[in-house]
Write a structure and sequence with these properties.
Layout (H helix, E strand, L loop, with lengths): L2 H38 L6 H12 L5 H25 L4 E5 L5 H9 L4 E5 L2 H9 L5 E8 L3 E2 L1 H9 L3 E9 L3 E4 L10 E4 L1 H6 L1 H7 L2 E4 L3 H11 L4 E5 L1 H6 L3 E4 L9 E8 L10 E8 L5 H11 L4 E8 L7 E8 L5 H13 E10 L3 E2 L1
Parallel strand pairs: 1-2, 1-3, 5-16, 7-8, 7-9
Antiparallel strand pairs: 3-4, 3-11, 5-11, 6-9, 6-10, 12-14, 12-15, 13-14
Helix pairs in contact: 1-3, 2-3, 11-12
Length: about 350
């Protein structure tokens, strides 16, 4: 054996020994990151952070040919780290409202692939499960591009103690489902959640179907599967069809091709991460002329761009409202602190409801 080969193998053995120690050290750090993300209800994958790390580390390689291989090495290492974190995350309890196959169930699974999804009967029950410590996080809808805000979720966030640590966009595709041997000509009546029936009104009208409301789309699919009636169809997701052994008779029957629901991840603790660059504020203003305009002016004065502004009636006070605002930027800065101090002067109640990464599609 040549001395050059022996020398090369000696170097590789030494490097491998060092890399084994460093690998364990890195994975211990991944454990700490996973613990942090589970505590704050954050997803394992952070694509923006991964891209930044790869770019930073690749700059350390002088050899242009080796740079490409090193980037592949980094990507593989990150995939291994994610897989390990997903395994650690398997104990995470994720509350959602509805049954298996409902869009909230699908959203919770895409945000937390290895989490234990726990079904609750309604939004309040899912929310309270986190408050009581039964669940670690709750995934609840806050807005639909077709039907608008989900008032019950917004009311819970305003009056409750949980924080928004993420807002995720799930594109909704409604489909006509039926028994495996059913054709569209067999269908006489369709069942689904009222919102889904509304979204597909034009299609239903064109087909001349009768309608029947269900508590949610997944329950509608379950009803069709159990009824064994070829004349009954359901409007629901493709995932629901697979879950209940139904056939997609016609796909994407939504009135609008763009139908997206935004889901909020709610946790007991407020997250502070560099990739969470938008903030949710909720407040009431004093009963003085121009108070709302003053509040909005303060937000703009400190350089924050409002991306959403909504009002909701306060249940215990007739004709009084609270306001939900999404802004670009974090408030845990000197500038943000000054802005909040100014807002407190014109607001009866002011709450930083949480931070999130904008336009995160799942």
């Amino acid at each position: 054996m040549s001395s050059k080969l022996e020398e090369a193998r000696k170097i590789i053995n030494e490097v491998d020994a060092q890399m084994a120690e460093l690998f364990v050290k890195r994975m211990r750090a991944a454990e700490m990151i996973c613990e942090h993300k589970m505590e704050f209800g954050l997803p394992i994958r952070d694509q923006k952070r991964e891209n930044a790390v790869i770019e930073q580390n690749a700059a350390r390689i002088d050899d242009e040919v080796l740079t490409g291989y090193y980037i592949d090495y980094q990507k593989n290492l990150m995939a291994i780290s994610r897989a390990y974190q997903y395994r650690l995350q398997s104990g995470l309890k994720v509350a959602y409202s509805g049954v298996e196959g409902a869009f909230a169930h699908i959203a919770a699974g895409r945000i937390f692939p290895q989490g234990n999804r726990v079904s609750y009967s309604d939004f309040m029950a899912a929310y309270d499960s986190v408050v009581k410590g039964e669940s670690d996080v709750a995934v609840l809808p806050i807005e639909n591009s077709y039907a608008g805000e989900v008032g019950q979720t917004m009311d819970l966030i305003f009056s409750g103690s949980l924080f928004i640590n993420g807002i995720y966009e799930l594109e909704i595709h409604q489909n006509l489902l039926g028994l495996p041997d059913t054709t569209v000509e067999d269908i006489k009546k369709v069942t689904s959640h009222p919102q889904a029936l509304s979204q597909c009104h034009d299609y239903i009208d064109m087909r001349g179907f009768a309608t029947e409301e269900a508590n949610n789309t997944a329950l509608a699919a379950k009803t069709v599967a159990e009824a064994g009636d070829k004349s009954l169809g359901a409007i629901a997701s493709a995932e629901t069809a697979e879950m209940y052994g139904l056939k997609i008779i016609e796909a994407n029957i939504n009135k609008s091709g763009e139908n997206t629901t935004r889901f909020a991840v709610l946790s007991k603790v407020k997250a502070a991460a560099s990739t969470l660059t938008s903030t949710v504020l909720m407040f009431t203003v004093k009963h003085e002329a121009g108070s709302l305009a003053t509040a909005i002016g303060i937000i703009g004065q400190y350089g924050y761009n409002m991306t959403a502004l909504r009002s909701r009636p306060m249940k215990k006070h007739s004709w009084q409202y609270y306001f939900y605002v999404e802004i670009d930027g974090a408030t845990d800065t000197e500038n943000g602190t000054r802005m909040l101090e100014e807002l407190n002067k014109v607001c009866d109640q002011l709450k930083v409801a949480g931070t999130f990464a904008p336009h995160t599609e799942i």
